[in-house]
Amino acid sequence: MADPVLAEAVVARLAAWRVPRVFGHPGETAAPLVEALSATGGEVTFVPTRPGASAALMAVAHARLTGGVGVCLASAGASAYGLLAGLDAARQHGLPVLAIVAEHPPVASADDRWGPVDRSFGAVCRRVFHAVDPARGADLVEAALRDAVAGPGPVCLVVPAGAPGRRRTVVGGGAAARLVFEELRLRLPRPGIVAVDGEPNLARYAHRLPPGTTVLAEPGGAATGAALPAAVAAKLAAPERPVLALVTDDGMRSHGLAELVTVARGWPQWPDPRLVVLVFNTRSGHPGRQLADDVPYAGWARLLGLHGVRVDRPELVGAAWDGALTADRPCVLDVVAAP
C-alpha cells in the first residue's frame, strides 16, 4: 500500500492549500492516504464513495461550484480507471481537478514503468506527476496543485502502491470464513457455477469447492464488483444450472445493488430460479475503519421481491444456505463479517 510518510506529506500539502475535502474510493492500496486524512481531525475531510467513479464526478462538481481545486482519490486497478470519465468532464470544461491514484507500477522496462497509467490518465489530464520519493512528496503535490489551478483542466498525481496486505474475513461471533464454505460444500448442487468478486481469498475458497463446479475468477482476483454481473451472464447462458456470486461488500455497493434490479426483472423467465448472492458484509471498504453505514443487503433484496437472509451468528450459517438454495426465487445471503 502507499507509503505512510509519503501519504502524510501529500495530505499536509492539501491542508496547506485549504482543500476542504477529498472524494475517494477507500481501497486497500490507498489506506495510508485515508488514515492521513482522518488524522487531520476534519481539516481535510475524506468522503468515501461507491463506486470509485463517483469520486471524480464529485470533485468536478466541487470545482465547478466553488472555483477551488476538486480532489479525488482512488486505489489501484479498476477503481483508479473509474476516475477517467469524470476527469474527461473536467478536461472538457477546463475545471481544476487533482486526481490522486495509489497505483501499482506495472512490470515493464525501466523507461516505460508507468506507461499504461501515463497513457490512460495522460489522455484526459494536462499532466501526470509521479510521487515516488517520500522526500519530494510535498513538492510534487505543491506542483500538481499549482498546475491544476493554472489550468485549464485536471492533473493527476500517481502515488506508488506496494503489495496489498491480506484481509481476514470472519463471520460475526468469531467463526472463520471457511465455515461458510464448509457448509456450502455440503449443499452446493452440481454442476454449479460460482462467480467470484475482486478478493483473492474468496477465489481460493471457491477453487476448493467440489469437482464439477465451474469457477469464474481471474488469477489474483477479479475486478471489484465483477461477481454479480458475471453471475447474471452465467445464468442467462446456462439457465438450468445453479449459480452463486461471491461478493465483497465493496463490490456490492459498486455494482451489486443496481444489478439486483436486473435479477429481479429477469428471474421469472428462468426455468431454474437458483441464483444466490453471498455478500461478505464487513461494513467497511477500508481495512480496520468503518467508513460506511451497514447496508441492509438482504432487506434490499426483499424490497425487490427477491429472497433475502441476514446471517450474524455462526450457528445460523447452515440453515441460511438451506433456505437460499431451496428458495423459489434468487436470494441474497448477507453474512455479517469483521474486516
Automatic annotation (TrEMBL):
<dbReference type="GO" id="GO:0030976">
    <property type="term" value="F:thiamine pyrophosphate binding"/>
</dbReference>
<dbReference type="InterPro" id="IPR029061">
    <property type="entry name" value="THDP-binding"/>
</dbReference>
<dbReference type="Pfam" id="PF02775">
    <property type="entry name" value="TPP_enzyme_C"/>
</dbReference>
<dbReference type="InterPro" id="IPR047211">
    <property type="entry name" value="POXB-like"/>
</dbReference>
<dbReference type="Pfam" id="PF02776">
    <property type="entry name" value="TPP_enzyme_N"/>
</dbReference>
<dbReference type="InterPro" id="IPR011766">
    <property type="entry name" value="TPP_enzyme_TPP-bd"/>
</dbReference>
<feature type="domain" description="Thiamine pyrophosphate enzyme TPP-binding">
    <location>
        <begin position="202"/>
        <end position="335"/>
    </location>
</feature>
<dbReference type="GO" id="GO:0003824">
    <property type="term" value="F:catalytic activity"/>
</dbReference>
<feature type="domain" description="Thiamine pyrophosphate enzyme N-terminal TPP-binding">
    <location>
        <begin position="6"/>
        <end position="105"/>
    </location>
</feature>
<keyword id="KW-0786">Thiamine pyrophosphate</keyword>
<protein>
    <recommendedName>
        <fullName>Thiamine pyrophosphate-binding protein</fullName>
    </recommendedName>
</protein>
<dbReference type="InterPro" id="IPR012001">
    <property type="entry name" value="Thiamin_PyroP_enz_TPP-bd_dom"/>
</dbReference>
<dbReference type="GO" id="GO:0000287">
    <property type="term" value="F:magnesium ion binding"/>
</dbReference>
